[in-house]
Design brief:
The complex is a heterotrimer, with one copy of chain A and two copies of chain B.
Chain A lengths: L5 H8 L3 H13 L6 H9 L11 H17 L6 H18 L11 H26 L22 E5 L2 H17 L12 H11 L7 E2 L12 H20 L3 E5 L6 E5 L3
Helix pairs in contact in A: 3-4, 3-6, 4-5, 5-6, 8-9
Chain B lengths: L4 H8 L5 H14 L4 E2 H7 L6 H11 L5 E6 L2 E6 L19 H13 L2 E2 H8 L7 H7 L3 E3 L11 E4 L1 H6 L11 H6 L12 H18 L1
Antiparallel strand pairs in B: 1-3, 2-3, 4-6, 5-6
Helix pairs in contact in B: 2-4, 5-7
The chains are: A mainly alpha, B mainly alpha.
């Protein structure tokens, strides 16, 4: 308080103590409100009537006064409080003035009724939440079997994964794609169709047994990723050609080089 | 109808006597910490058993006892009687304290389900904070429901059996005060006259791009 | 001896009726994870209770039922009746966590189904090992869809009803989109481009041998 500038002290002193206390109480709480609707609900309690009989006009005035006071005390209000203030000012003027003939859109009464409905609904949900939390709760008031039995020689493995795990996994993959935009980026991928086209053209040169690797296109044997893709594509392509009876394939042993030869017509 | 085929069929599929079935239901429910559905009971009991009938008598048997049989959705479980909770504080598990926002969000989902995020925000008058939905999903008190068949096909949320189990509810229809709230029209979705269409439109845009992204 | 002090003392230390004590023992034994000793029962029940006596009657009450009260060392616990052990098969489950590769593959199938193996690899950026697909097939969370009408006629994968049931989804289309994931706070664990790439590379190496195996 000691650091507070002089003029703020003076400003605050202009209010009578009771009002000042009230204003400060609201301001201290402003962080505590969960948005304009929550604040409106709190203000509506001062009317001490059933929410269904609340005076929206009076409420609008209370809200606007609150915003004015906050401004006078240089409290920064979040934008949605100001949006609500603007809307309530509009509503207030509509409620006070007779409707202009030929005006379309909802009437001021309809808008006021809707605001009252929103407040009543929020209040009802809060009461429902309180009633819910006041119920006997499992693990606090009511208990399940403490030692569930799992006796049997037959163990069945169940795999555990929750929806959260699943969504996180997907989010992880897609987030990675943000660095490498999600698209089938083909520059490191040699497709089987491409390989098939190539191999058809090159078949004439495969009169005798030749290593499949020799058929890889230029520039596709440098990086491992490209070599893998090209190898896979060409391998798939020769399988397709073998199926059509155009080439013969042989491999000495697992992982040995794969050799191909044009099938004699 | 002849007499002979009937007895044969009866012998083949003869179910254990009701008293025996009751014991089986008792054993299965006792062994499980989670509620067990009628379907699971039927599946695990010998052919021809009627666990529903056995449950009626078994439930009556445990009325007023230290443990009771409670219904949770279409499942059943043994639970300690609520008035004995004070003896069990040793067993009590420290539950994560829910924020006011989380509690309100949970209540709104329970009373308004299936409900979209935008609807929750409209009722609370503020944005649903990051992580609130996440927390409720993680506790397995809410889950995703059907997408709403409106433009944008927004995701909806509904409460789970775990939620019902935790709060000792047979079904969401048994939520405290829900009939009165419905009668008072407080569970209707009533958009702000005039301005709601615009909001929906905007929401549709957001949802829509998502839908076609994949 | 005067009359007045006695009733006061009696009220102060009066133990609950035996039937009530039985309920208490029943609830405590039920909720406890471990067998409970007489000493613990005495300690947890109101002053003046005689759990030993309550146990005798309670034990008799459960004779011939689906669960019995048995003595374990110097403690007491509920146990399934020996003749009903055969009903407990389903309870014997071992849960294991799915590997990262499996959950990612599953997520891609769920979001992009029907999807071919090559497409999964393209989205994940690493090869998918045959074991992963086999595991998901075995778990009956995925199954084969239609063959894709492209050269090689590759098989596609789709998720099963069992998958939907496990994850509490009504349909795979109810899965939240990227924007919704982000709004729910699920997208903030963003890996650094450098660190994740190195790991993927390694994973790719391992996966590669798998790829050529079949």
């Amino acid at each position: 308080m000691a650091e507070t500038p002089q003029d703020d002290w003076l400003d605050a002193d202009r209010l009578p103590p009771a009002e000042r206390l009230q204003a400060e109480a609201l301001i201290v709480d402003v962080e505590g409100y969960e948005g304009p609707l929550d604040l409106l609900l709190t203000l509506s309690r001062t009317q001490k009537v059933d929410l269904r009989r609340i005076s929206v006009l009076q409420l609008a005035e209370q809200y606007l006064r609150f915003v004015e006071e906050a401004r006078a005390l240089r409290i920064e209000l979040a934008a949605d409080y100001l949006v609500m203030a603007a809307w309530l000012a509009f509503l207030k003027s509509r409620l006070l003035l007779p409707p202009e003939p030929g005006e379309d859109g909802p009437s001021a009464e309809e808008m006021a009724a809707h605001l009252a409905f929103q407040l009543e609904r929020l209040q009802a949900m809060r009461e429902a939440a309180a009633q819910l939390m006041a119920r006997d709760q499992l693990g606090r008031d009511i208990f399940a079997r403490g030692a569930p039995e799992r006796l049997s020689a037959r163990t069945k493995v169940t795999w555990e994964a929750t929806l959260i795990d699943l969504m996180r996994a997907y989010a992880r993959i897609r987030t990675r794609d943000e660095f490498r935009p999600y698209a089938f980026d083909r520059h490191d991928v040699f497709t089987m169709e491409q390989a098939l086209d190539r191999m058809r053209g090159l078949l004439g040169y495969a009169g005798d047994w030749a290593d499949l690797m020799q058929f890889l296109p230029e520039g596709w044997d440098a990086s491992p990723a490209r070599r893998r893709s090209a190898t896979a594509a060409h391998f798939a392509a020769i399988l397709e050609l073998a199926k059509r009876g155009q080439v013969t394939i042989r491999q000495g042993e697992t992982f040995a080089p794969i050799h191909i030869r044009k099938t004699d017509a | 109808m002849t007499d002979s085929p009937e007895p044969i069929e009866k012998t083949l599929f003869e179910a254990p006597p009701l008293g025996e079935q009751e014991r089986m239901v008792e054993a299965i429910l006792f062994a499980s910490a989670e509620p067990v559905t009628l379907a699971t009971l039927t599946e695990r009991m010998p052919h021809g058993c009627d666990p529903a009938e056995a449950l009626v008598t078994l439930r009556r048997r445990y009325e007023g006892r230290g443990v009771n049989i409670v219904r949770v959705g279409d499942a059943w479980a043994f639970r300690t009687a609520a008035d004995l909770g004070h003896l069990m504080h040793k067993e009590a598990v420290e539950t994560r304290k829910l924020s006011r926002a989380a509690i309100e969000t949970l209540a709104i989902i329970a009373y308004h389900q299936p409900v979209t995020r935008a609807e929750i925000e409209e009722i609370r008058g503020v944005a649903v904070s990051r992580g609130t939905i996440d927390q409720l999903l993680e506790m397995e008190w809410i889950r995703l429901g059907r997408r709403r068949m409106t433009p944008g096909r927004p995701v909806t949320f509904v409460v789970t059996q775990g939620f019902l189990d935790h709060f000792g509810l047979e079904s969401a229809r048994d939520l405290p005060g829900i009939k009165e709230l419905r009668a008072a029209g407080l569970l209707d979705s009533r958009p702000l006259p005039g301005s709601s269409a615009a909001q929906d439109e905007e929401e549709a845009q957001t949802g829509q791009s998502e839908l076609f992204e994949d």
